[in-house]
Structures are given as C-alpha cells and as structure tokens.
Design goal:
mainly alpha; 69 residues; membrane
Length: 69
C-alpha cells in the first residue's frame, strides 16, 4: 500500500484523499436520508452523521486498498 499520493509534486497522505472522497459521498447521502425520513428515527443527528461518516470511511479505505498498491 502506498502511504503518500503525489499530486503535482506535493505529497499528500492517502488518508487525506479518502477523507475528502468520504465527505463527498456523505454529502450526497445526507439529503437522501433527509427525504426518506430516516432522521425521524435517529436520537442524535450529529452522532448519526458521524457514525455514518466513519462507516463510509472504513468502506472507502477497504475498497481502495487494492487500488493504490
């Protein structure tokens, strides 16, 4: 696994790229969750969003582990 990504001569940690991708996926999912009414069943919306972000980040890192090697 590569730990740095070369972006136009700037070395960025690969986790930073995964965090940005996960944020974009989460930003797309939040309105869908809002429209579906799932937030009505959630006790604490901010904690739910954090847990969703962590789960998505785990999925993105797992799926990309084979891509960056």
């Amino acid at each position: 696994m590569r730990y740095e990504i070369d972006l136009f001569g700037v070395l960025l940690p690969s986790l930073m790229l995964w965090l940005v991708i996960t944020y974009a996926i989460g930003a797309l999912l939040r309105p869908l969750i809002e429209r579906s009414g799932l937030y009505r069943y959630v006790w604490h919306r901010a904690l739910f969003d954090l847990a969703l972000y962590v789960c998505l980040l785990g999925g993105v890192v797992y799926l990309s582990s084979g891509l960056l090697s």
